[in-house]
Amino acid sequence: MRQESDPGDRQYEFTEADKKKFKEDPEYLLQFRKKIEAEINSLFGMYQQGSEMSNAFRDVITKEMHRRLGPGHEELKKFIIPTWSPGCRRISPGDGYLEALVKPNVTPVFSGIKKIVAEGIVTEDGKTHPMDILVCATGFQVAFRPAFKVINGDGVTLDEDWGSGPNLYLGLSAPRFPNFYTIVVSLILVTLLTLDLFTNCCRDLAQPGPAVPSSHLSKLASSMPSK
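^ thats the sequence. predicted structure below, dont judge the formating
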């Protein structure tokens, strides 16, 4: 097993021989890519809350984050190490991120920003933090709601129908919005299967006859919760 090293050195770099092999042997490159994809897809069970794999990954991720942050830094650990199951949000931060937070020249601030002043920022605990540069990275929407307005056949918008939270069948389709689909998992195989379902649904809707969802959509509709 490879010994742990500086996070910046943990990314694999392909040798010139590797690159030459990829260029001259397309089949080898294809199998290499498929192997990576298969390895990633094999971990899908991690996203099934309460499963053996999910619990095991949660334990591994927690221990790994503790290891990377090192001894001490208890307030930071309490703030940043997740208490939810893997997949609820992004998996443990990438190489170098946690290590940067515990550098001698870095001071994590846990209080929210109250106001911006000429010297820097004032946090809610009353402290002023002098600074030369303030990088704003706010405004990211983590909800499933699209930035555009979606209206169903009854004239109801998606925002109105969902109210305080999203309502999706298996994270794929919205009740009462039969041609509105979402992709919420980045795994390649799951994305392809999801797109296949969407395509079949659209084909059903395009068939001549009564404007009633058939086959795939009917199965979805029968399982969808009602408000």
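Confidence is low (pLDDT under 50) at residues 1-5, 212-218, 220-227.
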